[in-house]
Structure formats: structure tokens, C-alpha cells
Write a structure and sequence with these properties.
409 residues; alpha+beta; 11-stranded mixed beta sheet
Length: 409
């Protein structure tokens, strides 16, 4: 007989789903039969399987250890954990992990600032991703026990493109993940991006259309009319500041589709700076050669959960979090006089200081300037000089060499 005591991270799951993850070799029919025969009990009583387990609950499994070993697939679990521990990271992956910042942390949720170049979730085994970093972070800071990973694994709740930086929401308990899934599914969260685009935009816009994804080359196309396989998309665009060469935009995603912002802005004739997939190659080559810009200037900047949204976990209510743009982003703002140079010197003062809610570092001052559209004084602006050491460019060039491609977006 074995007793399982439910932890906070596992709390909130249906009993039958928990048992299916704990004993992956057991069929659902077998599990229901064992519950009917009282070989599986919840808190000393007969269980049906639909119960929501809570922290402190006790599950009793009246099986021999030999049977449990077969049902729990113990050897595979140990192998998976050994592979995770023995995984060696490349220098690029180690460097990217050092750039991850914690913006918000609670008992159920962590919000990270993801650097450009890092995957949100891995696509092949050799990849390293923010999701992998999340699990290692939780284990290192004792937010979850190794044994709990059998039945619950912390996970990201939203995804960003590899070369898009900024805010990523993560659940470190089942309740946290369920709450994040709810606000994303029901669009109870406001998501804002900052981006630098080519050319002068003078008016705010609300852009609608229909998006079709081509999985073969990982691109999307937009249509004014509904077509087969197309998903409706809507993007709100606010012009913060503009110059003849470029514009700084604050974009709100109403729907969240793959490459939505990049495709919408390119269709409007103002592609995102540094975006080789949808943008102007000559313009992007200039940015790469002069500034080492190797990825699109698109940054997930701000999330707001408005008043009136009630969730199972109260720490998310009225939450407002921002993430300062990367340094190269702000260098381009300075180049086109879209940023006040005096504020750049103050940018990442408190980046390493996690907060529970509100703004991070100097983003409050940044938000006051850019969201309100305050005009730059023009004082203290200096011509940018490219720095000799550019880790982002080195990582980009190494990926180009490894994949034998001219550009990877």
C-alpha cells in the first residue's frame, strides 16, 4: 500500500487526471474499476474520480510495490530526470539564461522577462527553453519538489516568438496555470507590446483581418475577407512618437495569433525593424551592420488585469506589470530621437529586483513618457557608437554558422 499526500502545486486537479499522470501505464478503465472496488481511496473514502483534490488530501493505493512500479513506469521517470540533470547547455544557452529576469513572483505564478533568442518552449530535445529554465528555477528555489514533477510540471501559459523579448506568464501550481489559462482564454488580460517600425506612422489604427498560417515555411498571410482556414485577428496600434525614418508604436493584441503584430504592421507598409521574415532586407541589413541588430524590435512590454476580474487566486487581481525594453531597442530609439537620452542612463537600475506587483525598475518613468506621448526635449542626445563586444550579434552569427543559413528569424 502507498499513500500520496497532495502538495500545493498539485492542488486543483481532478482525481482521475492526477491518477492518470501518477500511473501512466494504467488505463482509465482500470483506474475507475479500482476506485469502485476501493483499491484507490481519497481521504479514507470511496472515490469517483471527478473530485478536485486539495492540498493535504491523502490518496491511498492498495497495490503491491511491484504492481505500482509497472503502473508508474518508474524507470522512465528516473531516466527523464537523469536526462534533465545531465543536460549540458551551450554557451549561447547559458548566456540567454543569465538574461532572464523575474518581474513578479507569488505562490502560484511567476512572470519572466524573456530575452530575444530564447525559445518559450522547445521544439526538439536538444533545445533549451524558458520552460526548461522555469522548472530548474522552481527546483533551485524549492518552489516544487522533484517527486511532484511526476504529477505536475510548472509551465509557461503564453508564448512569444523566439526573437521577441518580454513578458511571459508561468504557472507554478495547478491553480496558477488554471487561472492564467482563464484570463487568456476569456481575454480578461490586456497585453501591450512596444515596437519600432520602418517609416513614419502618423495616426492610431484599429486593424482587423483574417490570418492564414503556412506551416511549411512558418509564415502567415492576411486577408480582408474570411477564407478557408483563416482565423479572425484584431490589433490596436497607438503611435507614441515618430520620425521620418521610423516610429515607436504601442500595440495592443485583442486576439493573439502567430506573427499577428509583425504581419499586420508589414501589411500596413510599416514592417517591424529587424524583421527579416516580413520586413525590408536592405533596411534590416543596415541595422545589423551598424548596430548589431539581429532580431525584430518587438517587445512584450506590459500586462494589465483590470478591476472587476475575479480569479481563484487573488494575487493576480488588479495586477499591472511592465518590462523595460532591451538595450538595443533603446539604442534605436535614441538613433531616431524617439527616446529621451537622459532617461536611457537610468534604464536597468533595478532589473534584478523582483517585485510582487506594479512596475519594475524605471519602467514607471518610461511608461509616463511613452504612453502619454510626452515630447522629447532633445537634450543630451548623442550619436550612437557601436560597442565592440556584442553578445547578441555573436550568438546570431554562431547560429548562422551552425545552421548554414544567411538569416534565421
Amino acid at each position: 500500500m502507498r499513500e500520496i499526500h497532495i502538495t500545493k502545486a498539485e492542488s486543483g486537479q481532478r482525481l482521475d487526471r492526477f491518477l492518470g499522470k501518477y500511473m501512466p501505464e494504467a488505463s482509465s478503465g482500470f483506474l475507475y474499476k479500482m476506485m469502485r472496488k476501493k483499491n484507490i481511496k481519497l481521504n479514507g473514502r470511496k472515490a469517483e474520480g471527478s473530485e478536485r483534490i486539495q492540498e493535504g488530501d491523502k490518496i491511498e493505493l492498495f497495490f503491491s510495490e511491484e504492481t505500482l512500479g509497472k503502473l508508474c513506469r518508474a524507470s522512465d521517470t528516473k531516466k527523464r530526470e537523469t536526462e534533465r540533470k545531465n543536460k549540458s547547455l551551450t554557451r549561447e544557452q547559458q548566456s540567454l539564461r543569465k538574461e532572464v529576469r523575474v518581474l513578479f513572483s507569488s505562490e502560484n505564478v511567476i512572470i519572466f522577462d524573456k530575452p530575444a533568442g530564447m525559445l518559450t518552449q522547445k521544439s526538439v530535445r536538444e533545445d533549451d527553453s524558458l520552460n526548461d529554465y522555469l522548472i530548474d528555477y522552481c527546483l533551485e528555489h524549492h518552489l516544487i519538489e522533484k517527486e511532484t514533477l511526476k504529477t505536475f510540471r510548472p509551465s509557461v501559459a503564453n508564448r512569444l516568438d523566439r526573437n521577441t523579448s518580454g513578458i511571459v506568464l508561468c504557472g507554478i501550481t495547478m491553480k496558477g496555470l488554471q487561472s492564467l489559462a482563464q484570463i487568456l482564454r476569456e481575454r480578461q488580460i490586456e497585453k501591450y507590446y512596444l515596437c519600432i517600425v520602418q517609416g513614419k506612422m502618423s495616426k492610431d489604427k484599429k486593424v482587423k483581418g483574417y490570418l492564414v498560417k503556412n506551416d511549411t515555411n512558418n509564415t502567415v498571410t492576411l486577408s480582408d475577407k474570411p477564407v478557408e482556414g483563416a482565423a479572425p485577428v484584431e490589433t490596436w496600434i497607438h503611435v507614441v512618437r515618430s520620425s521620418p525614418e521610423a516610429s515607436l508604436l504601442k500595440v495592443r493584441l485583442i486576439t493573439g495569433r502567430s506573427h499577428q503584430i509583425r504581419a499586420h504592421l508589414a501589411a500596413e507598409g510599416h514592417p517591424v525593424a529587424g524583421d527579416y521574415k516580413y520586413g525590408d532586407r536592405a533596411f534590416n541589413d543596415m541595422l545589423k551592420n551598424e548596430y548589431g541588430i539581429c532580431y525584430q524590435m518587438l517587445h512584450s512590454y506590459e500586462i494589465i488585469i483590470p478591476e472587476g476580474v475575479h480569479l481563484p487566486i487573488t494575487e493576480l487581481e488588479h495586477l499591472h506589470v511592465t518590462a523595460a525594453p532591451p538595450k538595443q531597442f533603446e539604442q534605436l530609439l535614441s538613433r531616431w530621437h524617439l527616446e529621451d537620452q537622459r532617461q536611457i542612463a537610468k534604464r536597468h537600475v533595478d532589473d534584478d529586483k523582483p517585485i510582487r506587483r506594479g512596475y519594475v525598475g524605471d519602467e514607471k518613468a518610461y511608461a509616463r513618457r511613452h504612453v502619454a506621448g510626452e515630447k522629447s526635449t532633445g537634450q543630451g542626445q548623442q550619436k550612437h557608437k557601436q560597442q565592440k563586444h556584442n553578445p547578441q550579434k555573436q550568438r546570431w552569427d554562431q547560429r548562422q554558422h551552425n545552421n548554414n543559413k544567411e538569416h534565421r528569424v
